[in-house]
Amino acid sequence: MNPLALSLILTTLLAGTLITMMSSHWLTAWMGLEMNMLTMIPILMKTTNPRSTEAATKYFMTQAMASMMLMMALTINLMYSGQWSITKMTNPVASNMALMALMTKLGSAPFHFWVPEVTQGVELTPGMILLTWQKLAPLSLLYQMATYTNTNLIYLSGLLSILIGGWGGLNQTQLRKILAYSSISHMGWMLIILPFNPTLTLLNLTIYIMLTLSIFMILTNTFTTSMSSLTLMWNKTPAMTIMLMTTLLSLGGLPPLSGFMPKWLMIHELTKNNSIIMPLTMAIMALLNMYFYMRLIYYSSLTILPSTNNMKMTWRFTNTKHTMTLPTLITLSNMLLPLTPMISMLE
Amino acid sequence: MMYIVFIMSVLYVVGFIGFSSKPSPVYGGMSLVVSGGLGCGIIMGSGGSFLGLVVFLVYLGGMMVVFGYTIAMATEEYPETWGSNVVVLGAFLVGLLMEVFMIMWLFSGEHELVGFYFGGLEDLMVLGEEGFEYVREDYSGGASLYSYGFWFLAMAGWMLFVSIFIAIEVTRKRY
């Protein structure tokens, strides 16, 4: 894309999320969400094939519908309470409708159907922006308004997200769809802890963004988008193959890596509140995610599939892609667990 | 007066059903014009005479005119209307039926009527609640957009500019 147009669009994307996160008035929050949606469209359509056009259209349709529902919830709230503040949506119709609209924007079940299709239809970099940056604005609104919503709806959607994120990713061979289902599953974890301790939602969001950014950057550097290309990664960059292994284990929530920190603290918080069956179900369903990450690790790092001899001795060309932030992100996404007492910083 | 606003609201929804049943854009545009005019009437009947006229001027007189011209350039030989295709006619009739059911439900029970209060003094005192206010809300709202709401205006103008960029970027030639 023309650099001037790209800089304009990225500036407006940043501005949209920041306006939503900084606002206390519902109208400016809605305005920031619309800015996000509109400027995401040309980013998703950067490549010129019909598949990405279809993905951008699906993204626009679902997000526009969610924005419409959010606007209706806001006006119902205005009609019954006469004010526009985000934290005091006392009318249940308004708050539950806004909750459903924000869940559609995040891509949690049962409104998750657009996430795998849109993520698969676009390149890796727009997919990365879609799954990380676009979660910030709706979650910041949910963080503020969740106290007045029906918490049964939040638990149902969260549990369903974990189930669908686990089971949906089992049959996938394309890495972007696997990461989309992983995103749905992590959104489920973030939603469930929201009525109990919203700080842990923010912690999970931070660690999830670091992990997803690391994985997407590793995949972008080695040009792998499917499991069959993963099997050839050991020859091109053995170091990144090992890093992919540890980062995927962290994404699955295995101790002693940093992905374990949010899951551990969430299960701790849920059991402190006398809820046993729900964290048990969540932890067991996280194993489904762990299964397909293990499958990726097996095919990339733990085995070398049969190939001809000249494929085992490829010429190493210089890497033309930026790896600027990747070492920092990989270190953060693997080794943050000893810093767990620092979460009081997020309060 | 509230009766007039209510009837205009019902016809507004019927106009929306008219283009949501997806005839050709020629007829959809006509339905949009009807809905836009009725929406303007709703705003004016609820006391916002300035903003109603702004709707007429900008929406119908600006955007619908441009829309109409572009449709006229891109139209086909036999445009699909509500009577030509049984799918479009069926969708229109289903929507109409749903609207009738909703009005029947609205007037059926003893629940509170949401948003409509028949029997108020809207004809005589146009600002809704009882008390006569010295400030017209719609005029002062439009004026405060330029004074207190300067950043709203800046953001709205910025987004219009970016929307044109996005529309051009999306409709560029893609090989």
TrEMBL record, chain B:
Principal subcellular localization: mitochondrion
Regions crossing the membrane: 6-21, 26-44, 50-74, 86-107, 148-168
Record EC number: 7.1.1.2
One GO MF term attached to the UniProt entry: NADH dehydrogenase (ubiquinone) activity
Keyword Cell membrane in annotation: no
One term under GO cellular component: mitochondrial membrane
Protein name: NADH-ubiquinone oxidoreductase chain 6
Signal peptide: none
Organism: Loxodonta africana (African elephant)
Superkingdom of origin: Eukaryota
Keyword terms, alphabetized: Electron transport, Membrane, Mitochondrion, NAD, Respiratory chain, Translocase, Transmembrane, Transmembrane helix, Transport, Ubiquinone
InterPro entries: ComplexI_Subunit6, NADH_UbQ/plastoQ_OxRdtase_su6, Nuo/plastoQ_OxRdtase_6_NuoJ
Compartments reported by the entry: Mitochondrion membrane
Function: Core subunit of the mitochondrial membrane respiratory chain NADH dehydrogenase (Complex I) which catalyzes electron transfer from NADH through the respiratory chain, using ubiquinone as an electron acceptor. Essential for the catalytic activity and assembly of complex I.
Gene3D superfamilies referenced in this protein's UniProt entry, alphabetically: NADH-ubiquinone/plastoquinone oxidoreductase chain 6, subunit NuoJ
Recorded coiled-coil stretches: none
Annotated membrane topology: Multi-pass membrane protein
